[in-house]
Amino acid sequence: MKIRILFIFLIMFVLSGCVGVSSKGIFGTGVSIAFDPRSVGTQIDDSIMQKSLSAKILLLDKTYFLSVKSKVLDGRIFLTGKVDDPEEKLKLTKFAWETQGVRSVRNDIKVKEEFDFKQSAKDLLITSQLRTALILNKKIKATNYQIDTYKKKIYIYGIAIQQEEKELVIVEAKEILDVKDVIASIILVDDLRIQKN
């Protein structure tokens, strides 16, 4: 009887972990399964790669949990955040390339400088304005995009259904006040290895 109860709890734990990873809601940074054009198998592969890379990064240094973000889309790894020196940035790039199944790595990690509250507040405001603009634009699936801003440069990662949507996201980003540059890593559905039927 105890084994049966333990088995049920184990199954519930495993299944609840899958749901939490694959659907973070409309305001989350994840890509919701309902709107994600990738096949379920590709989503699972990306999720496994994401977990593997996150574990490697945490083993390297626990402070990276808050300072470094990674996103995996169709085997492509995107890294953002801040580290103390250029050597750490190179180590993280190496870890990303060593992840099984990786197709490419884009490293937008910045080397830390002295903390500037005013700059951080501006970056947060820019990110919030763009997130709101994407949500309000009916032609854009906002849940398919992750946005990071550093020193008024917007980094956008995600999947666009069509070229028109990709261009709309970039236009929305460029219209935000005080933005210096928009670096978009947006993949079109047609460029995915395996697509939903």
Structure description:
With 197 residues, the protein is α/β, with parallel strands linked by helices. The chain has a domain at 117-191: Histidine-containing Protein, Chain: A (2-Layer Sandwich), CATH 3.30.1340. The protein is built from 6 helices and 6 strands. It has helices at 2-22, 40-60, 64-67, 86-97, 117-136, 163-174; strands at residues 68-73, 76-83, 104-111, 145-150, 153-160, 181-188. A 3-stranded mixed beta sheet has the order 1-2-3. The chain starts with a helix and ends in a 9-residue tail after the last strand. 26% of the residues are buried. Mean pLDDT is 80; it is low at 18-29.
Topology:
Elements (H helix, E strand, L loop, with lengths): L1 H21 L17 H21 L3 H4 E6 L2 E8 L2 H12 L6 E8 L5 H20 L8 E6 L2 E8 L2 H12 L6 E8 L9
